[in-house]
Amino acid sequence: MSATLLALGACDGGTPAGDGGAGAMDSGSMGTDGGGCPAGETMCGGSCVDTSGSTQHCGGCDQACAATEVCSAGTCRAPMMCEGGLVDCGAGCTDTGFDDDHCGSCGAACPFGQGCNDGTCEDVCGGSETACDFDGVLTCVDTSTDPSSCGACGNACALGEACVGGTCGCPGGTTMCGASCVDTATNPLFCGDCDTACPTGALCDSGACTCAAGLDLCDDTCVNTDVDNTHCGGCGNPCATPGETCVAGACVSACGVGTVLCGGTCTNLSVDDTHCGSCGNACGTGTSCDLGRCRPDNDLFADATTLSWPSGGGEISVTGTTVNAARDGLVADCEANGPNVWYRFTLTERQPVWVDTAGSSYDTAVFLTDATGTPLRGWCNDDCGCGSTGDFSRPTESCSWGVLDAGTYYVSVGGYVAGSSGAFALHVQRLPRVGRLFESRMVGDDYTGRERLEGTSSTDGTCYSPAMSSGEDQYWFVSCGDAREQTFSVCPADDSAFFFDPHWDIEYDGRVFDPVMYSRAATDGAEVACNDDNVGVDCYDTSDRMNLGARLADVGAERGLNTVILDSRTGGSGMRYRMRFVVPEIDVSTRR
């Protein structure tokens, strides 16, 4: 503010309020008495007077002193003798040429805003300034421009407002927002209008929020998309954390060479079973990741899966896949050229074995090798010949069988056509030996040789009790498990005839042999059929004098290996016989 500060003098008792005396001061901070006069003055006859020095109102209103007296401290007294042109005006000797309270003569006080100069009251403030009383201090203020006293003393403008022509207002180019004048074109707190604040770090340019050079506005925040992990390369493009960092606007893996980030973990896609070849591509049961592909665990001969036999025999059944498998073990003259996988099993004794792929989803081929990987002659097969009957769902499923020595063997399951692969089922059966095993497979309509039943009993059928008295002869055959039926007989009426007198045998001390036959399946070892004497059906010729004999007629069979066991319930060891059998052939044209 442009101001002149002066101490305020006292008023005498003769200055009327309307004449610009002390009673006419601009609104200041002086107190007033009960009559509305400033502190120390009293209203007398319509004017504020200082009764401590007024000769007209000395000590009180209308208490005038004599013409020759002066008022001093509210009491009339004779004036003092003064020297040097000074005059006693009640408060002591004073120079009435420059005393604001006694200007030109005692009691002639200058009004507020004026000072005594050579006995004459003159304005203290010059030009456009106004005298303002601030806590007893006279201050010269230009009320046309001063924002603290705009238009009147003490009339302060709001923060940021300017005083123009005695009126408060915002300067050109600014707007009143709240209690301040702001430039809404550049102020980030009031950008464009009073209600818009820019995000932290943003600038206001021409009334619009913007970011500094090199930054972008993302989610109300100015960010550097070259290095920001939440907005890498652009708004809303986060890098995976942990494990990735934004570098030059691109998410860069923090993982080492050969690994990528999958689920927050640095992963080698070439070997990781959970992320094989790509994140989230998990390998299934029985497969593992190799070179980024889920390969079967038993892809190679050396990694063959071991098959364990159920207690007491029975069938082993597994499922698998050759998808992504390699071709390991090409076999000359065996047309099995697709990707393959390997299994192995061990036999503790020489016995019949069967393998098949019934229930597979594509054209399979199987072959067997010994423990060194040498293919076994006659054990390679493409199409089983069972068609789509029984447990076989398609004619392209495979099977093979034979009698193997004790030892370890390897089974290859693969595609018949080079490059073909898919899901498969593998079934492996063995036929535990019971008594004496005849290794030649029964097939067609034929007879066994002339045999003699020897040894002691090791097993029984279910159609007679107590236990058998002799050893057993065991024969085997194979079946598709379909509707084809088999017949086995030692009935004389079937031209199979015992080679002994049914009544008694002189060579064997007149002992009588009573044959019993029963069949079992290798799938689970369960008995399929049992017969003694073929009760109710003609089994004997006219020479018979005892109802002896046994026949299994039109017997069904399970898929794979089946066995027929001939036993004798009486007579012990030594029964001589010849058995007739009718067993349909399985047409396996591609078995090599």
Topology of this structure?
Blueprint: E1 5-7, E2 42-44, E3 47-49, E4 70-72, E5 75-77, E6 87-88, E7 93-94, E8 114-117, E9 120-123, E10 130-134, E11 137-141, E12 162-164, E13 167-169, E14 175-177, E15 180-182, E16 203-205, E17 208-210, E18 216-218, E19 221-223, E20 244-247, E21 250-253, E22 260-262, E23 265-267, E24 287-290, E25 293-296, E26 305-306, E27 314-321, E28 340-347, E29 351-356, E30 364-369, E31 399-404, E32 407-415, E33 423-430, E34 436-437, E35 444-447, E36 451-453, E37 473-479, E38 486-489, E39 515-521, E40 527-532, E41 551-555, E42 560-568, E43 575-577, E44 580-583
Parallel strand pairs: 26-28, 34-37
Antiparallel strand pairs: 1-11, 2-3, 4-5, 6-7, 8-9, 10-11, 12-13, 14-15, 16-17, 18-19, 20-21, 22-23, 24-25, 27-33, 28-32, 29-31, 29-33, 30-32, 35-44, 36-43, 37-42, 38-41, 38-44, 39-40, 39-42
Describe this structure in words.
The chain is mainly β and 592 residues long. 0% of the residues lie in helices and 32% in strands. The protein contains no helices and 44 strands. Strand 16 (203-205) and strand 17 form a beta hairpin.
The assigned CATH architecture of the largest domain is Sandwich
- By secondary-structure content and strand pairing, the structural class works out as mainly beta
Q: Count the E strands.
A: 44
At the fold tier of CATH, the topology name of the largest domain is Jelly Rolls
Beta-strand percentage range = 25-35%
Give the low-pLDDT segments: 1-34, 501-506
The level 1 CATH classification of the largest domain is Mainly Beta
CA radius of gyration is 64 Å
- Summarize model confidence as the mean pLDDT: 84
Tally the structural domains.
3
Anisotropy-based shape: rod-shaped
Percent helix: under 10%
Largest sheet: 5 strands, mixed
User: What is the topology, as strand order, of the major beta sheet?
Assistant: 34-37-42-39-40
Number of helical elements: 0
